[in-house]
Amino acid sequence: MNSEGEVEDDAAMMDGATLAWGAIAAVQGVRHPISVARKIMEDKPRFLVAESGERFALEHGLEMCDKDELVSEEQYQEWKEEANVLDRPNTVGCVALDSSGNLAAGTSTGGTTGQSQGRVGDSALVGSGLYADNQLGACSTTGDGESIIPVVLAKTAIDALAEETHPDQAAQHAINTLKARVKGEAGCILLDRQGRIGWAYNSDNMAVAYMTEALQQPAVFTEKEQSFAIA
Ligand code: GLY
Questions:
Q1: Quick check: CB of 172 below 6 Å from ligand 1?
Q2: Averaged pLDDT, 171-175
């Protein structure tokens, strides 16, 4: 929730086959911002903000909702009590590889807790919040947008893959770059064209899950070295 106690969402999607992308930012009353980003990508890559993103969603039959529905009573109370707490990331990201070798990345966020109205972070920015290229890999990031943007975190991780490093090393390289150059916390998930998985973060923890053909159920982690089975 932002400084006004409202939710403004940002989201983007990128297709690694064509490098097509779509992005929205500072939209309200949209049930699934990532679906709007995907629709924009498929329609004509561009970045639509606020009312223009909401109008696009409405005109393309995507699910709208009352903006208050995105805030539970419990969250509202928490916001009132912690109104001065800033920089808590609220981001979900996904990377995928299909059986034809197509990679995709998507990132969606409510920004940071208490952010000023209209602030937009990294999540909807291709190169910072996400990147996908069938020739290399796909990456989605989370964390402090103000730190992620200047090191172009997702592209930094993808470019490290070009040096034929494992995605775990490439993800760690990207986080090391962020730590060396700016203050702030971030994390990234990374998938290469061979389907190898990697992730790294410099926050206390970051929840990650993945699923492959070989697994019966998703592998779920709350910390890098700690996985648990889901029911
Ligand atoms: N990474 C989310 C944001 O800074 O908005």
A1: no
A2: 97
